[in-house]
Amino acid sequence: MDKIIPYQRQFIDEKDIEAVVQTLKSDFITTGPKVKEFEQRFAEYVGAKYAIAISNGTAALHLACLASGLKYGDELITSPLTFLASSNCALYCGAKPIFTEIDNQGLIDLKDISNKTNEKTKIIIPVHYGGLPFNTKKLRESFNGIIIEDAAHALGAKNGTEKIGSCTHSDMCIFSFHPVKHITTGEGGMITTNSEELYKKLIVLRSHGIDPSKKTEDEPWGTPMVSLGYNYRITDIQCALGLSQLDKVDGFIMASRKLAERYDRAFADNKDIRTIKEKEGQFNSYHLYPILVGNSKVRLDLYNYLRKNNIFAQIHYKPVYLQPYYQSLGYEKGLCPKAEEFYNQVLSLPIYPQLTEEDQDFVVRKINEFFEE
Ligand SMILES: *Cc1c(COP(=O)(O)O)cnc(C)c1O
Fold first, then answer.
1. pLDDT tens figures, 159-206
2. Residue 163: in which H helix or E strand, if any?
3. Same domain, 229 and 302
């Protein structure tokens, strides 16, 4: 069978393998020096004061909400054009997810935020869709609550000179290291923040709510549990891989940007396709390369046509509130018409560092063929 071209995939080299093997032979395979080192290097890379490595991106969102004090009766606003985890984290805390409309780049529409906020609004989670940076600075100017950036797609992306993750205009920012994301640890995640208070809370919540700093002299063996935490720890094995991956991240992003530029050029005169362009000051790190086509029928036919040719494009995303579970909670179709229209038209094309220009040209050729037929 011919090879399959996926929409995304990990890049693992001999150095990554060697780093993991070295850790397996060391004294610590979890909660050892590699976790700390990964956190420090990551914080440095994005320009934040603190970074806390977590078992995965979903757990990172959950902990960020818990550290914010999110609880029953509160509301959390996020984009409907995202992975489920961005709003599930509200449900985990008993809070209510509220969905905003999106703009034509697929980012939260700031104009809709004022319609959705009220005295119950505790947290807003903007999503840097596909690696395209949302302007958190503008949101900060109009919202006094807690802002948690979902940067699962956006490692290395920038607004002007500000890297996503620096938390210059937010309280926390979360990342994912699932194999489809920019760098991988198998499963893994990170929270960055500039707040010492949040950092301390997150460290305790990550490991069962145990706070070693509360140890007393009469119980020197003590592991005082001060809040209801979880086991959301990450292993040293994973962090060794993360460190080795982080060495390559700028190369990954440059490779993806080059591929994006080639797609941009290939579709520049194609009337059947809309691409999403960077605006002034945006530096997209291109986790995804979404294109938009005429309607849901064309999109389904194109999806199937590419699939027949072993090109596994993907759809990002069906608006979260249209998922059966959310429907059962009472969210209705038509809540965010622009997000629904975007969903009907969107398709993510293959984009990852080791995608060859030859394979990319094959993808472009098949898309052109589809529209010529
Ligand atoms: C991948 C992803 C997550 C969750 O990350 P996991 O590490 O898979 O739990 C959260 N938000 C978005 C937008 C994602 O794409």
1. 999 999 999 999 999 999 999 999 999 999 999 999 999 999 999 999
2. strand 162-163
3. no
Of 70, 88, 130, which Cα lies nearest the Cα of 320? 88
* Ligand 1 neighbourhood includes 206 CB (under 6 angstroms): no
**CA of 86, closest atom in ligand 1:** 11
Confidence of residue 1 (pLDDT cuts 50, 70, 90): low
**Mean predicted confidence (pLDDT) in 215-223:** 89
CA 26 to centroid of ligand 1, rounded, Å: 30
The residue out of 219, 246, 273 marking a domain boundary is 246
> Residue 222's pLDDT is what?
84
- Which residue's alpha carbon is at the smallest distance from atom 2 of ligand 1? 152
How many A from CA of 84 to the centre of ligand 1?
A: 8
| Residue 50: other Cβ atoms inside 10 A | 20
Among 127, 185, 193, residue whose Cα is nearest residue 166 = 193
How many contiguous H segments (helices) and E segments (strands) does the chain have?
13, 15
Q: Is 8 in the pocket of ligand 1 (CB under 6 A)?
A: no
Domain membership of residue 223 as a residue range: 5-246
pLDDT exceeding 70 applies to what percent of the chain?
A: 100
pLDDT computed for residue 33 by the predictor: 97
Residues 6+ apart with CB under 8 A from 183: 155, 177, 242, 245, 246, 248, 249, 252
Domain shared by 286 and 145, yes or no:
no
Residue 13 belongs to a domain with what CATH number? Answer: 3.40.640.10
Q: What is the pLDDT of residues 124-142, one digit of tens each?
A: 999 999 999 999 999 999 9
How many Cβ atoms from other residues are within 10 Å of residue 106's Cβ?
25
Residue where a domain stops, chosen among 187, 218, 246: 246
Name the residue with the closest Cα to ligand 1, atom 7: 57
The whole-angstrom separation of Cα 143 and Cα 125 is 12
* Ligand 1 atom nearest residue 127's Cα: 13
